Amino acid sequence: MKPFTRKQFLKRSIVLASTLFLLGGEWNLFAKGTKEEKMTEPPDGLKPVSENDPTAQALGFHQDAKNTDYNLYPERKHPKAKSQVCLQCAQFTKLNEGWGKCSILPNGVVATKGWCSAFAKKM
Ligand code: SF4
């Protein structure tokens, strides 16, 4: 078998790296449209915390962490930040599969996939 030339090696490396980038990470082409999560209903009588609530706004809160303003919170782009959602936060008390109470935003319930800048990982 003939060994690769440097040029062939570089070409194949670039193609492989590009393919892996597109298949994984933020641009996961195969996951889009197939992994659409359905939001469960909040527990009876409880309303979701409004994202327009002054405290929620000050903390950059969104019921879906994907809607975070990445200009204000660029650290949210880091792959490790994906697991930083309300469900994993020390301030969160789970009520059902999709919702729970946040001790910092008490006026309603927050989604398990929410996030705000006061996030602190559960121990
Ligand atoms: S403090 Fe924690 S539980 Fe409350 S909104 Fe922020 S990330 Fe979610």
From TrEMBL:
Record domain High potential iron-sulfur proteins family profile: where: 43-123
Segment forming the signal sequence: 1-31
Disordered, as annotated region: 34-55
The entry's keywords: 4Fe-4S, Electron transport, Iron, Iron-sulfur, Metal-binding, Signal, Transport
InterPro entries: High_potential_FeS_prot, HIPIP_sf
Domain of life assignment: Bacteria
UniProt family annotation: Belongs to the high-potential iron-sulfur protein (HiPIP) family.
UniProt keyword Iron present: yes
Species this chain originates from: Leptospira limi
Subunit-level organization: Homodimer.
Function: Specific class of high-redox-potential 4Fe-4S ferredoxins. Functions in anaerobic electron transport in most purple and in some other photosynthetic bacteria and in at least one genus (Paracoccus) of halophilic, denitrifying bacteria.
Name this protein carries in UniProt: High-potential iron-sulfur protein
